[in-house]
Structure formats: structure tokens, C-alpha cells
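Subject: for your reference before the review

Hello V.,

The reviewers asked for a structural picture of the protein, and I figured it would be easier to keep everything in one thread rather than splitting it across files. Below is the amino acid sequence we used in the manuscript, unchanged from the supplementary table.
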Amino acid sequence: MNTELFYYSIAEIGISIIIGVLLLFVTYKLIDRLVRRKYNIKLDNISFSIFSASILFSVAYLISGIKAPILNSLRMISDKPEYDGSIIIDGFKYTFLFLLIVIITISLINFLSVKLFTIMTKNINEFEEISKNNIAVSILTATIIISISLLVKDSLYLLLDSFVPYPETPRFN
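And here is what came back from the structure prediction:
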């Protein structure tokens, strides 16, 4: 058994669980404050649960690939023979940078998805309908949120990959 790989995978699972639970908890609290309390939605409202679940799914789906750019950054740094810094400190720097970028981007994606959808459907007030437990409106809103997340994921990871310190490749003219 490769013990180094075993411990590395255990650490990665632990980090994933901690980041995932914290981010989903913060997201749920924000949804609770910004939507449920503003529109006086009861906790047993199925429409609000569908809407909240779509936001939580979007966050989890978009954050699921953040480990690869972080690990690529650490590999690129540690493979440089002239590197004399601390891999742990730089690991935290890259992790914080990538988390910040992802959190801001996810927030913008979800906010813009809902905002653009509400602008396009002028004759329906989505949050008022969700507060009335209109399941059809919540399913449609949730589908928009999830669909936009599916469409944006690759672009988000391309953005993160642009921060990875890949070595310069020679150009031949």
C-alpha cells in the first residue's frame, strides 16, 4: 500500500468536507436571510426548499473542481528547483485565492441568473410566487439556476487555471 498516497487522499477528503460544509452552511444562511426572511416565507414551504436546493446544488457543483487548480499550483511550485519558499504557506495563499475567486463568481452567477430570469418574466414576481408555495415557479427558477451553473463551470475552471504558475513554454517564430 502506498501510505503517502493514502494520507494525501485522507487529507483531501477532509479538506473537501470542511470547505464543502462551511460553504454550503454560509450559502444556506445567506439564502435564509436574503430571501426567506425578506419575503416572510415559512420553513415548511416546498417551493422555497426547491429554490434553496438549486442554489446549494449550484454552489456544490461549481466548487467541486477547485482542488485541481490548487494541486496543480502546488505541484508547479514544488517542482521548480530554484523555489525556496514554504509550500504550506503558498498552498494556503493559492487555496484562499481560488476560494475567493470561486465564491465571488458563484455569487455573481447565481445572483445574475435569478435577476436576469426575473427581468425576462416581468409579469411574474418569482419570490412572491415562491412565498405562496407555487411549486411550478420554483421548479422553473431552480432549472434556470442549475442550467446556468452547468454552462458556466468549464469557464470558471479556465479562469482558475489562468492563475496556476505554469512554466513558460518556448515560442518558435
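For the response letter, the relevant points are probably these. The chain has a mean pLDDT of 86. The chain has one domain: 3-161.

Happy to draft the paragraph if you're swamped.

O.
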